[in-house]
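Why does residue order matter? Because the sequence determines the fold. Keep that principle in mind as you read this record.
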Amino acid sequence: MNKKAMDKAIDTYLDIILDIQKNIRSLNKSIAELYDLIHDNFSQLTKEDYSQIADMYKKLIRNLIGLYTTYRTSHFYSGIKTDLKNFKNGIDDLQEIGKDIRIFIVSLPQNNDYRDLVGLINSL
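Structure:
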């Protein structure tokens, strides 16, 4: 391969890396905004809210994990690994707050021992 063709191939590769980085950073920003929205409104969430968004939320997480896996196994990984690590951390944060919602908003309020304890604390 001559130098001109090699330079063009390298430029194309770098352009692709920059485009992927831009897209991942945009996703990271959206993930952070969603996390903040859920976190800021956590205390107002209800079981009904959860049941309305649960399927969509789970599908979002699955799709994000699928996208992460695609990027992680791509030939571009070495050029995007820092942004991809942030992307994975954001996905992990969304998964964790989703679990928190299931536990603290859906499951715990149904637990009699928990309700008794909350009642006891509130009566103090």
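Helices lie at 3-40, 47-72, 77-107, 112-123.
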